[in-house]
Design a protein that fits this description.
With about 600 residues, this protein is an alpha+beta fold. The chain is built from 17 helices and 26 strands. The protein folds into four domains: about 190 residues, Heat Shock Protein 90, CATH 3.30.565.10; about 110 residues, 2-Layer Sandwich (Ribosomal Protein S5, domain 2), CATH 3.30.230; about 160 residues, MutL, C-terminal domain, dimerisation subdomain (formyl-coa transferase, domain 3), CATH 3.30.1540.20; about 90 residues, Ribosomal Protein S8, Chain: A, domain 1 (2-Layer Sandwich), CATH 3.30.1370. Helix 6 packs antiparallel against helix 13 and helix 13 crosses helix 14. It binds adenosine-5'-diphosphate and magnesium ion.
Length: about 600
């Protein structure tokens, strides 16, 4: 059938109200999490002291928000569902002094147009409530009903009439992760309100009303971790917060909650300002956790960038950046910052002096060795793993083949490759620098090996194969450990539970946000179960968000968390064994994160350097 011809004469007519709302819904309600955000913000705007969030099938079936706020008058309830109807602003200039979340008057009509929506609301002055039901934007019924003061909104079958959008939804576990993040952020910024969240039949959190910001942040991110309060004012910025101590860090930004005037925002720039407030206390690649609530004159913030409003425009971004950085730095200084002392110790024991290398942060990966300063020798057991687990079966023997490679310096390409069947005795260990760089003579060249990235590469290639084959050895723990995850980590756990259980972990949910860990991959069994497991979860979250395949992410995380660290002491045999294994890797020049594993210097290159 040929498509209908577009004729020259076109009829211009306004779109039906229904169609307009459906189109707008595409912007306002991207996914179930955005519906939750809009509805909870409405509840907060209505002065609720307690808000319940109930989600079924990650929002595809039901999103229900119950509040005890002011309610809507019965003669107003229908108006609330007409487009651009709002009680929050009357003029455009009101945006300059905006104190509420809402102002567009778009959420209710949009949601009603793409779901089966039921609202029940009652004000204090009225002795009964009112129920209103919409289906695909069309009013179905309106009637009085018995109800408590406040408002309940039930959004059922979201996107039932926009199949494209419904199809676009991610898996239930992934949507649950978005929901957990949004719900948690709302509970943090509105920390004094009571919140309950039940997602897919599970209690995600339950926070009582009247909490302080610190209490709420700790309830979310873990009571056991150390936090530092932040409070202060510089120029146009007032900052209130509760942030992790420098050893309470993560390899991604998911432990961060940033708000401007109560609005949860995503801002790479402000997140960086927060990070830079830690200065050299933060290890490279790590991010602080916690919450920062900025209050900025409404005239300096443009919230009208996008309907979903996680983006804001700041007219004096540079000054806001500086203010955040300074206030964070000051709070950390005031708190005494014990890790500075630890660092000094670490430096003296390792022979590393400040200023010796601008590359190295002074605190070395503090999160890897919690509670034990920063540098330590690896336990003997850990090193033994370099043979036992890494090689799988055979220890490095005299008969292993050595692959000699020559790399073109300018391109990094392999230009010559000869396989010689030689003993590892062909490797001469010259020394180690700072318990991190191994200096080894092999064949015709001198190798400087980064022991962590090198080991990571070796383990990664083995783990990847084993993850594929589900052949990672599990080690049962003598005492199973119960770990409480934060809401978002829990969602990641649920999403990855099957993969974890196929990859040497023995994990199951234990009620609430508790996870029971009964087994760990045996290669990791020497490390602290609790910290290692949580790090794996964090790795999975950040790697997947970076678009990494699930199994690769798993292999990468296990490799990274099992590899010897900077500061671990390797014996001669282990050092040469590591290089030998590295040279047998498929992709030996970099670790899975892309950092180099070794530098090779040939005699010729050295000669050139010395002008011979
Ligand atoms: P906006 O929040 O931008 O004003 P909405 O479409 O979200 O627009 O809501 C329209 C109006 O309905 C609000 O301005 C408010 O007066 C009323 N309203 C919505 N939700 C609630 C609620 N939970 N409690 C009280 N009033 C509400
Ligand atoms: Mg609203």
């Amino acid at each position: 059938m040929p498509a209908p011809k577009v004729t020259d004469k076109r009829l211009i007519r306004p779109l039906p109200k229904n169609v307009i709302n459906k189109i707008a819904a595409g912007e306002v309600v991207e996914r179930p999490a955005s519906a939750v955000k809009e509805l909870v913000e409405n509840a907060v705007d209505a002065g609720a002291a307690k808000i319940d969030i109930i989600i079924e099938k990650s929002g595809a079936k039901l999103i229900k928000i119950v509040d005890n706020g002011c309610g809507i008058d019965e003669d107003q309830i229908e108006i609330a569902f007409s487009r651009h109807a709002t009680s929050k602003i009357a003029n455009f200039s009101d945006l300059d002094t905006l104190a509420s979340f809402g102002f567009r008057g778009e959420a209710l009509p949009s949601l009603a147009s793409v779901s089966r929506l039921r609202m029940v609301s009652r004000t204090r002055d009225s002795d009964s409530g009112r129920e209103i039901i919409y289906e695909g934007g069309v009013l179905q019924s309106k009637r009085p009903i018995a109800a408590a003061v406040g408002t309940t909104v039930e959004v059922a079958d979201l996107f039932f009439n926009t199949p494209a959008r419904r199809k676009f939804l991610k898996s239930e576990t992934t949507e649950a992760r978005y929901l957990a993040r949004v719900a948690t952020a709302l509970a943090v910024s509105n920390y004094s309100l009571g919140f309950n969240a039940d997602i897919n039949g599970k209690r995600l959190f339950s926070f009582s009303s009247g909490q302080s910001l610190s209490e709420r942040v700790k309830a979310v991110l873990g009571e056991k971790n150390k936090f530092v309060p932040v409070a202060g004012e510089i120029d146009l910025v007032r900052l209130e917060g509760c942030i992790g101590a420098p050893d309470n860090v993560r390899p991604n930004r998911y432990g961060q909650f940033l708000f401007i005037n109560g609005r949860f925002i995503a801002s790479i720039s402000l997140s960086h300002a927060w990070l830079s407030g830690y200065g050299e206390l933060m290890a490279r690649g790590m991010y602080p956790v916690g919450a920062l609530l900025l209050t900025i004159e409404p005239t300096e913030v443009d919230v009208n960038v996008h309907p979903s409003k996680t983006e804001v425009r700041l007219s004096r971004e540079r000054e806001v950046y500086e203010a955040v950085r300074k206030l964070v730095a000051e709070s950390l200084r005031q708190d005494g910052i014990i890790p500075t002392l630890k660092t000094a110790e670490a430096i003296s024991t390792s022979g590393f002096k400040p200023g010796e290398s601008s590359e190295r942060p002074f605190v070395r990966t503090p999160s890897f060795v919690p509670g034990i300063g920063s540098v330590k020798n690896a336990s003997p057991g850990l090193i033994a793993d370099l043979y036992k687990n890494v090689g799988g079966d055979t220890p490095i023997s005299e008969t292993n083949r050595i692959t000699q490679v020559t790399i073109d310096k300018s391109t990094g390409e392999v230009i010559g490759k000869t396989e010689s069947s030689g003993p590892s005795a062909g490797f001469r260990f010259i020394g180690r620098f700072d318990n991190l760089y191994l200096i080894i003579e092999a064949g015709e060249a001198l190798y400087i090996v980064d022991q962590h990235t090198a080991h990571e590469r070796v383990l990664y290639e083995q783990m990847l194969e084993k993850v594929e084959k589900q052949a990672i050895n599990a080690q049962n723990l003598l005492f199973p450990v119960q770990i409480e995850l934060d809401p978002e980590q829990y969602a990641v756990f649920e999403e990855s539970a099957a993969l974890l259980n196929n990859s040497g972990f023995g994990v199951s949910s234990f009620g609430g946000r508790m996870v029971n860990v009964e087994a760990m991959p045996s290669i990791m069994s020497k490390r602290s179960t609790e910290t290692t497991f949580v790090k794996v979860i964090d790795d999975l979250a950040s790697l997947r968000n970076a678009g990494c395949d699930q199994k690769k992410a798993m292999a990468q995380s296990i490799a990274c968390r099992s590899a010897v660290m900077a500061g671990d002491y390797l014996s001669e045999r282990e050092a040469t064994g590591l290089l030998e294994q590295l040279l047998r890797c498929r992709d030996k020049y970099s670790c899975p994160h892309g950092r180099p594993t070794f530098i090779r210097l040939s005699r010729g290159e050295l000669d050139k350097q010395f002008g011979r």
